Amino acid sequence: MPALDIQSVTKSYNKLRVLDRVSAQIDKGELVTLLGPSGCGKTTLLRSIAGLADIDEGRIVLEGRDVTKVPIHKRGIAMVFQSHALFPHMSVADNVAFGLKMQGVGKAEREDRVKRALSLVRLDAYLTRMPHELSGGQQQRVAIARAIVTNPTALLLDEPFGALDRKLRETLQVELRRLTKELGITAIFVTHDQEEAVVLSDRVAVMNAGVIQQIAPAVDVYENPANEFVANFMGFQNIFDAKVRSAQELAIGDTVIATDKIDVAPGEGIRMAIRAERVSITAGHREGAIPGQVSSSTYLGEQNAYVVDTADGPVTARIPTSVARFSMGEAVSVSFDPAAVRVLAS
Ligand SMILES: Nc1ncnc2c1ncn2[C@@H]1O[C@H](COP(=O)(O)OP(=O)(O)OP(=O)(O)O)[C@@H](O)[C@H]1O
Ligand SMILES: [Mg+2]
DSSP states of 276-288 as a string? Predict the structure, then answer.
């Protein structure tokens, strides 16, 4: 039985469908990130799960219990928002204790649990501080402590580290992952940063226009995108039209390239994708590679990013600087690592 079962949830605002039959099953203790562009429905989905928004159709089932019609404070779900989450006039300890007080938990137990929650986010020395005396990262950690102190069935986090700088975000990502695993908390974490999603999650759900496009372990979403939207969003720089020639060959324009086995009938037109790191460049023109000219070169430290203009469109390649250098306008050929060519479902 999944800890959280989202069944065909549909929601519209002013006749605009914001969630379109969204389904997902999340296991106990699993951390799923919800990744997608601005406006695709991420916050609306979290609000629907929490009970902050009513849904038009579908069901939300929490540990076997249908909570679709259950009010927010009886669902046992905690939510952490992007910012401004703390009560400004309450100390750190009082902020964290707030939910327990509401539940009628006695003072001694409350103090115990508050201390434990704050030590889990490594802020046990900050009990008496006021929110304005904390850094942004510390405030978000208090918000997380406040969310977990009530032992929620599910923890929903809506871009909680969005306002923080990169380094702090990375530290908090590691801490949040450790924390949810230690406590066995089922969590959904919203972000629009694909790196954050890959680092944090057991599975990534990629969403667009109210629809989950793919939900799979991070490595699958990264390496085997289900369709063109996911490929684009996960940073595949090269996406082309191609024609299937045989079980292990594609034609891109006039060039035939080798691939791993393709499950599409010969003669079919498809879209294919390949990451820039898996493209190689050789000087001059040669068989089985696409001819072109170097039209841009960007130094990235360990790598150089090149754009090669070809008759079939620009191809982006990232080549380790230690391997080779090419100059602007140079006649070159680009070829693809056969194992890295992905055929996208339309
Ligand atoms: N209360 C509301 N009333 C009307 N429309 C709304 C409401 N809340 C959200 N929407 C619309 O629903 C769509 C999805 O919004 P949502 O906030 O879920 O997006 P999001 O994926 O969280 O985006 P972001 O990454 O920018 O936070 C948007 O088109 C938004 O304008
Ligand atoms: Mg949002």
Answer: GGGEEEEES--TT
Ligand with the closest atom to the CA of 206: 1
Mean confidence (pLDDT) of the chain = 93
Q: Are 203 and 218 in contact (CB under 8 A)?
A: yes
What is the CATH T-level fold of the domain 4-232, as seen in this structure?
Answer: Rossmann fold (3.40.50)
What is the C-alpha to C-alpha distance for residues 62 and 6, in angstroms, rounded to an integer? 9
Cβ of residue 49 lying under 6 Å from some atom of ligand 1: no
**pLDDT tens-place string over residues 110-147:** 999 999 999 988 899 999 999 999 998 899 899 999 99
Q: To which H or E segment does residue 258 belong? A: strand 255-258
The ranges assigned to domains in the chain are 4-232, 236-344
C-alpha distances in Å from residue 198, one per residue of 61, 79, 191, 220 = 26, 21, 11, 10
Assign domain 236-344 to its CATH superfamily: Nucleic acid-binding proteins (2.40.50.140)
Cβ pair 131, 95 in contact under 8 A? yes
Evaluate: CB of 192 within 6 angstroms of ligand 1: yes
Q: In this predicted structure, what is the pLDDT of residue 81?
A: 86
Q: Which ligand is nearest to the CA of 207?
A: 1
Task: Note the pLDDT tens digit of each residue in 63-117.
Answer: 999 999 999 888 999 999 887 679 999 999 999 999 999 889 999 999 999 999 9
Position of tokens 């986090």? 157
Q: Give mean pLDDT, residues 320-331.
A: 92
Percent of the chain topping pLDDT 70: 99
Tell me the C-alpha distance between 239 and 60, whole Å. 37
Whether the CB of 244 sits within 6 Å of ligand 1:
no
> What tokens appear for 92 in the block?
């750190």
